Amino acid sequence: MSKSTSPNKEGEKKPMTLSTKILIGLFIGIATGLFFGEYCKHLAIVGDAFIGLLQMTVLPYIVFSLIVNIGRLSLDDGRKLIIQGIRFLSILLAIGLTVVMILPLAFPEWKSANFFSSSFVAPAPELDFLELYIPANPFFSLSSSKVPAVVLFSILVGIGVMQIKGKDKDMLLHSLDAFNKALNQVNKLVVKLTPAGVFAIAASTAGTMTLDELGKMQAYLLTYIVAVVIMCFWVLPMLISACTPFKYKDIFKYTKATLITIFATGKIIVVLPQLIEDIKELFEEYDLNSEENNAGIDILMPLAYPFPNLGTLCIFVFVPFASWFIGSGISLKDYPMFMGATLLSSFVAPVTGIPFMLDLLKIPKDMFQLFVVSTVFTDRVRVVLGAMHLITLTILTLSSTYGFFKVKKRKIVFGLTTTVGLFFVTLIPLRIFLGYSLKDAYQNDKVISNMQLIHKLVPFTVIEKSTPNPDPLLENESVLDRVKRRGKIRVGFYEDEIPFSYFNEEGELVGFGIDMAHELGSALEVELEFVPITVGHMPVELKNDHFDIVMSDIFMSTQYSAELSFSNPYLDVTMALVVKDQDDHFKQFETTAALDSFRIGYFERKDVADKFIKYFPNATGVRLDSVNQFFYDIEDSIPALDGLLTSAERGAALTLLHPEYQIANPLPYKITLPLAYPIGNNDEAMTSFVSNWIEVNKRDGTIDRFYDYWILGDDQLRRKEHWSVIKDVLHWVD
């Protein structure tokens, strides 16, 4: 995008530059978003339309630019340019990997745990590298924005054009070049709308983000932003100025407007043509705007775009952050695998590479949701560093290829020393600051201890001790008929089955099963009597008419099905172990099976424990009278245990109360167990009614809502509204 302006007459005001207009649009947009809050969310449509207009010409521009400029090269020139490009790309990526290794030093020690993550049982993501990089159908690659495949197609066609001789080649290149110039003119027209587009994007973003979301990720955000600022505004410009004729200030003089646009839009590709023009103007300033240099810029920029850049590479610090956030951290032995996989994963977009890396390192993929939230902030700075990476790579490659590359040793030594000092004086204080600010940050134990029922309560009583129903069944009367006659239903529950049935901090009986019980009471239009189950006596008490139904997390199994009547399953859960954070050998079948011996505790269900133990001949099971024995009374009442066998869903909730523990699945297969409700007196009418009622609640979203709240720790209907001046300061709206 041109920075030149026509001379002004004396006394005339200079026209406002585009970069100034963009900055004004950015700041007014942020102010508007903060003032009006969620009322600005609809401006996202305007922002998306602006980005769409920018994207409209980009891929065609890349295609024709590569074909034209590669077609004009000789084989020797093309080979030299690519060899030098690979050389400097390797140097830049090595710098990026070093930064990714040192950034986690800013994360202080802390303990953490999170609600159950569906990634614990989700299949690994499939990355179709073939489709991403091989243009089997170039038109599909273009329509799907598969940039690597589009670039490969363009390179191969360019090489094909390179082989054509005579007038045919000249005519083809002339026509394609003219069309490319037309595309560039269209793009310049759209760029004039940038201040308005930036305003809409900034307003919608500022209006819909929350301080809560920012607070959760301050360690990651601050660390990444520190790295980006040092790399973008010191390391890369210093590298250019230390090896080429270009001065530090001139690099930003010609690129600042485009960098601001990239920051606002969160995308490099939409202004790639402008970035190319910026570098050409910089070369022109230094009388280096030869035909071969201009052609090299046209080739290198789009050619380098699909390859990893420092912005994308450094964003993978989110992976060690996620590991730290959940309280584990990446072990030293895993770092070589992490670094190698990070380099390969950086070839694809972070939204594809991050889930793959989380899965590779056994980090709950639900952490990806935090990453998605963080992109509201990080995408803006990531792409700026990515753009500076492309600028650096292009300038260094051309300067080395065409003879104006010269290393200034004193400047390199000064730059290297300053860089080490900058990282030292920022990361160490940042670690101290984060350690202080996060010392009381862990709140999930209080969250689950204070959770409330979300279903509208029906009248209920909680009975202190398990006793038979005071109103025995009449002759030929079903349990369902008695419930309707009495106007009450007796619900059996375990007192410590968090998150399915337990007493919260205020002494209220809550949990997934308790919410379901209130839903059942509402459906039957009866009151509830909650009856505690005597540990070890649930089947006997059920047969002796203590409960009409049991609504804690009861696994359905062959053994239980033979002696009890069950409703249809309402939920599937996955078998897992709760183990100490340091016990990483329980995360894989091979390392667990190699243990000489280990002991696991289980509550109530020996048949379920036997199912687990059959995979590990050296394992032994110990029956617990209460789950709390595993956490509190190990040394006094039972032999030392290595793990607690439970469901992953329940285990995750237990780790919220005990963040020094984690859930692990060492089984060679995923063992899923259905949860169902045992019915009193094997009553067919009650069983049929409850099964049908479960089916209705599955379809109308009730079970999903309870699952999201109690198991995943999320409730869409209780989300806090975003802060805004109009609502929270001026109180003009509710």
UniProtKB/TrEMBL annotation:
<feature type="transmembrane region" description="Helical">
    <location>
        <begin position="338"/>
        <end position="358"/>
    </location>
</feature>
<dbReference type="GO" id="GO:0015293">
    <property type="term" value="F:symporter activity"/>
</dbReference>
<keyword id="KW-0732">Signal</keyword>
<keyword id="KW-0813">Transport</keyword>
<dbReference type="GO" id="GO:0016020">
    <property type="term" value="C:membrane"/>
</dbReference>
<feature type="transmembrane region" description="Helical">
    <location>
        <begin position="20"/>
        <end position="37"/>
    </location>
</feature>
<feature type="transmembrane region" description="Helical">
    <location>
        <begin position="257"/>
        <end position="276"/>
    </location>
</feature>
<keyword id="KW-0812">Transmembrane</keyword>
<protein>
    <submittedName>
        <fullName>Cation:dicarboxylase symporter family transporter</fullName>
    </submittedName>
</protein>
<dbReference type="Pfam" id="PF00375">
    <property type="entry name" value="SDF"/>
</dbReference>
<feature type="transmembrane region" description="Helical">
    <location>
        <begin position="147"/>
        <end position="164"/>
    </location>
</feature>
<dbReference type="Pfam" id="PF00497">
    <property type="entry name" value="SBP_bac_3"/>
</dbReference>
<dbReference type="InterPro" id="IPR001638">
    <property type="entry name" value="Solute-binding_3/MltF_N"/>
</dbReference>
<feature type="transmembrane region" description="Helical">
    <location>
        <begin position="217"/>
        <end position="236"/>
    </location>
</feature>
<feature type="transmembrane region" description="Helical">
    <location>
        <begin position="307"/>
        <end position="326"/>
    </location>
</feature>
<feature type="transmembrane region" description="Helical">
    <location>
        <begin position="88"/>
        <end position="107"/>
    </location>
</feature>
<dbReference type="InterPro" id="IPR036458">
    <property type="entry name" value="Na:dicarbo_symporter_sf"/>
</dbReference>
<dbReference type="InterPro" id="IPR001991">
    <property type="entry name" value="Na-dicarboxylate_symporter"/>
</dbReference>
<feature type="transmembrane region" description="Helical">
    <location>
        <begin position="49"/>
        <end position="68"/>
    </location>
</feature>
<keyword id="KW-0472">Membrane</keyword>
<feature type="transmembrane region" description="Helical">
    <location>
        <begin position="189"/>
        <end position="211"/>
    </location>
</feature>
<feature type="domain" description="Solute-binding protein family 3/N-terminal">
    <location>
        <begin position="488"/>
        <end position="714"/>
    </location>
</feature>
<feature type="transmembrane region" description="Helical">
    <location>
        <begin position="383"/>
        <end position="405"/>
    </location>
</feature>
<feature type="transmembrane region" description="Helical">
    <location>
        <begin position="412"/>
        <end position="434"/>
    </location>
</feature>
<keyword id="KW-1133">Transmembrane helix</keyword>
